[in-house]
Amino acid sequence: MFGIGSAKRKIDKTSFIPVYYQLVKILEDEIHNGMMPGDVLPTEQEISTYFGISRMTVRRAIAELTRAGKVYAEKGRGTFVAKPKLDSLVFELGDYYKEMKQKGINPNSKLLEARIVRADDKIFQEVGIPVGVRCLYYRVVHMVGNEPLVYETKYIVYSKKKPLLEVELINSSLSSLLTNHVDPPVRSKRVLQVRMLSDDEVGILKVEPNTPAFHVEQILYDIENNPLAWGTSLYRGDRYKIVNHTGWFGRKSPKDGGFNDGE
Amino acid sequence: MFGIGSAKRKIDKTSFIPVYYQLVKILEDEIHNGMMPGDVLPTEQEISTYFGISRMTVRRAIAELTRAGKVYAEKGRGTFVAKPKLDSLVFELGDYYKEMKQKGINPNSKLLEARIVRADDKIFQEVGIPVGVRCLYYRVVHMVGNEPLVYETKYIVYSKKKPLLEVELINSSLSSLLTNHVDPPVRSKRVLQVRMLSDDEVGILKVEPNTPAFHVEQILYDIENNPLAWGTSLYRGDRYKIVNHTGWFGRKSPKDGGFNDGE
DNA sequence: CAGTGGTCTAGACCACTAT
DNA sequence: TAGTGGTCTAGACCACTGA
User: Fold this and answer.
1) CA A127 to CA A115: how far, in whole Å?
2) Which range scores top for mean pLDDT: A31-40, A205-214, B84-93?
């Protein structure tokens, strides 16, 4: 029923690996090695009887492949091999600390300033925090060794909860700082832009003048759509790039996306 | 069994809307309106008998919610409401034409140059196309009205297929230009960086000197991992930003990601 | 131990497609 | 009309959790 590599692989029903998952891997192999986009897969009935498993289990395997974008099904016609979607570009970016931990780099961060301020008109215009509301305002710079990489400025709407520790401010994302608030954040808006650094920022990040940077802005909202926090992060443009892989991969599949340092 | 809004909603088995989907919507409502992260859902058995449907159907609904990140299940314990993941940032970016069509903008593009070249040492170093291989080289600028927004430079490994039309070069992504090749692309690598524009680029995009830009590089590979094409796109930094929403949304959920123009 | 989610089965009916 | 995928059922056994 299958092409070249068909006879080799069977399903082991006594294995601790679920049957549907074994089937996913078998079908992936067939797709990547013997088939072309547009080719039709065997019908669910055929696969079911061929491997001696139930049709529902076959459907589960095919559902996984569908979600992964490897195949698509058409009612009344059949299931077909999909073209790899090479134009959809998904850049994934966690918070700074997660990124560094993923790379096994030990970051080294400094709290430059932290104080209570009252929201002014500018903040209201930009974020929607009403004028006069008390906010915790702080600035952090993240370094690897002696090299500053990221500079962050954040506002958190003040609440009477237990005070935040310096170590929390330094190595926690805005949303994790806020999860214990009375009204925790449930929605986040982020904007990625590119811009030139100001003179102050050039000094803090210790870069040449006229260095561009990634500017990531985040606003967190509670369930009532009230803004709870506002942060901006500046990533040195000379040291950061975002890499993304899509498509089919033979044996090993590169991880998707991620914010990678310049090297 | 459910909280506030429980009694109101029943499942209509005669509806043309699948039962599992009706259940997804009911559970979503419960989660968003009456529950908090960490709360436990009724067991699959309870939901199954409560609505008079099979457990497999309940499981399908819960599987959808799990994939959407709204709940998570723990074997032997139960199913719980998840915290919205506010730190995972996914920037989505299609090709230029898709982006424009999504916005209903009629783009207006010019082919600046198109000719056959031979890969030189620099291209080999950067992309891996062997020195001497014949490539189609072309440059395009995309405008809205009279304003240039994107400038693209592309190399496609030459093949004996039917020649590409100018209109194809202008409004097709690299991967769609290549899908009919003998060995179509199955893998794509993209890198997003920020950099300053060169003098040439400043002239082409008609921006002020010292304007930063998004620099997106794409390399397409065939199944044998041979590079098939190489493109770089420059998006004006003063006109582009990438917006991303995550979390829970009450009635209407903003679309994820997207490359939006500066306004 | 009882209760939970995870997997799997062997049917069934349906809407849709192609001939 | 025959064949396809889409949905749904009413069971079953398992591994795991927590009391």
Assistant:
1) 19
2) A205-214
